[in-house]
Amino acid sequence: MKHFYVGVIALVLGVCGVVAWWDEFGDFLRGFVPVVLILLGIAAIGAGIRKGSSTAESEDAQEPNASPPSDEGQKI
Asked: Are 22 and 29 in contact (CB under 8 A)?
C-alpha cells in the first residue's frame, strides 16, 4: 500500500509541475521528442539490417529447390 501512496503523491506533484511550468515543459518536449525519434529510427534501421542479413544467410544455407520435410509418414 505504501507504493500506492508514493505513486499518488508523485502523480499529483508531476501534474502540478507540468501545469505550473507549462512553457518550460513545452520547450523540453520540443527538444526531447526529435532526439527520441532519431534514436528510435536508428534502432529500427539496425533491427531491419540485422533481420535482413540473417534472412539472407538462412536463404544461402538452404539448397535451391529444396522442399521442407513433410510429416506425413510420422506417428505421434
From this structure: no
C-alpha cell at 69: 520435410
Measuring CA to CA, which residue among 56, 36, 54, 32 is closest to residue 44?
A: 36
Residues 38-52: pLDDT tens digits? 999 999 999 888 877
How far apart CA 55 and CA 13 sit, in angstroms, is 49
| Residue in the block written with cell 529444396 | 66
> Residue written as cell 540473417?
54
The confidence band for 66, taking pLDDT boundaries of 50, 70 and 90, is low
Q: How many domains does the chain have?
A: 1
pTM tops 0.70: no
| Domain, as residue range, for 45 | 22-58
Interatomic CA distance for residues 51 and 57, integer angstroms: 10
In a domain, 38, yes or no: yes
